[in-house]
Amino acid sequence: MALLLIYDVEDDRLRNRVAEICLDYGLERIQFSAFFGKLNRNRRQELALRLAREIEDASARVRIYPICEADLKEMWSLEQYRRDADELKAAAEQRRPVLKVVPVNDEDG
In the chain, where do the E strands start and end? Predict the structure, then answer.
């Protein structure tokens, strides 16, 4: 079954550790603090227990939402990424008209 895992962890080191654990389970990072993937029930429980042990008494919140196949088929994904500022500038410069200054020989002076 698919799952969406989201978390809010204050401590930087612990937040990175939670992300590493999600990656260890083959989940795909879809946002800074959100992962998506498919795990069977046992693996989901194992993941939840591992995260609970890692977090212990820290100020943190982790939520795991199972998503059934029928709902997954109805999922929409709207994605648009801005290019890096340097890429945008280079693209704009390529579109800019090039003006060439040609000296005029005016013999009449």
Answer: 2-9, 28-31, 34-38, 60-67
Cα 90 to Cα 96: distance, rounded to the nearest angstrom: 10
- Contact criterion met (CB below 8 Å) for 83 and 91: yes
Instruction: Name the residue ranges covered by the structural domains of the chain.
Output: 2-73
| Tokens of residue 63, six digits | 């939520």
Alpha-carbon gap, residue 75 to 65, rounded angstroms? 14
Q: Which CATH architecture has domain 2-73?
A: 2-Layer Sandwich (3.30)
* Beta carbons of 24 and 58 less than 8 angstroms apart: no
Q: How far apart are CA 44 and CA 51, in angstroms?
A: 11
Cβ(79)–Cβ(21) under 8 Å? Answer: no
* Predicted local distance difference test score (pLDDT) of residue 75: 86
How do residues 40-77 score in pLDDT, each as one tens digit? 999 999 999 999 999 999 999 999 999 999 999 998 88
- Tokens of residue 29, six digits: 């990072």
